Amino acid sequence: MDTPSDSTTTSWLFPPATNEVQFDEKWAFVGKKQKHCADDDRRHGDCWDHVALDPESRLVVSLVVGKRAEAATHALVADFRRRTGGRVMRLVTSDEYPVYEAAIRVAYGQVATPPRTGRPGRPRKPYTVVPPGVTYATVHKERENGRVVRVGTRVVFGTWLAVTPAVVASAVSRVVNTCFVERHNGTDRNRCARKVRKGYTFSKDWAVHRAATAFSYFSYNFCWPVRTLRVKVDGRWEPRTPAMAAGLTDHIWTLTEWLTYPAVQRK
User: Of 72, 56, 76, whose CA–CA distance to 15 is shortest?
Assistant: First the structure.
């Protein structure tokens, strides 16, 4: 089990337009692959990007970089909830990684205390109840010879009666899916060479890998125009970044502007 210091949680500004979220994890490694590492080597081996992405704006809301462990997944979901002001999303989707169910229950659940019955015996302990408004579905992919042949979905929290209108209300989806966060995984591998699956550009240092990951993800939010986000204005296509689509800014930032923007605003 990782300790909180084994992973890094990074978040950006409060995204008021976020109504959906897709969670996913992307594999990379530092120094050498996990099978070549000693059991007590925490600075090398597999390193995962745990990502929360808004499919409508393509905005990366939260990111946790570290070992693929329950602590990292719980940190991701908790940070996403904090960054969105505790609002319940219209639809939450992920793959079938089982830790998400527990993480969502902890982050969005409410503690219910059973009433006293007046009967002899120990009273029932308080338990966590997920509010009816939380709608969470997973995507299951079946593969044959390395290719996806079937895709199924399962509702974990909520009902299909709640999932259906959530999908209908989505500006980008017509079925339950994780394709937007998975597509972003490919974009990030292209932007950050150390994430390429087969190559010699892999990271050699744990801290540098985490720093490069944060740089790649959040410069994407403000500095990378996404083709599918462009809008037509006066007959011309105007490019937009995820931050523009989410209403966080009104222009495409340069890397210089982004890097020199003060992290703490002083009055």
Answer: 56
Q: How far apart are CA 73 and CA 25, in angstroms?
A: 9
Half-sphere exposure of 261 (CA within 13 A, CB side): 13
How far from 2 is each of 47, 63, 216, 221, CA to CA, in Å? 12, 16, 24, 28
**Tokens read off for 192:** 């950050």
Question: What is the amino acid identity at position 57?
Answer: S
How far, in Å, CA of 63 to CA of 52, rounded? 7
- List the domains of the chain with CATH numbers: 4-113+126-260 (3.30.420.10)
Chain mean position to CA 179: 13
pTM over 0.85? The answer is yes
Strands 8-11 and 20-30: unpaired
Question: Mind listing the pLDDT tens digit of every residue in the chain (267 residues)?
Answer: 344 445 555 544 556 667 899 999 999 999 999 898 888 888 899 999 999 999 999 999 999 999 999 999 999 999 999 999 889 999 999 999 999 999 999 999 988 777 777 778 777 787 788 888 899 999 998 888 888 889 999 999 999 999 999 999 998 989 999 999 999 999 999 999 999 888 888 999 999 999 999 999 999 999 999 999 999 999 999 999 999 999 999 999 999 999 998 876 666
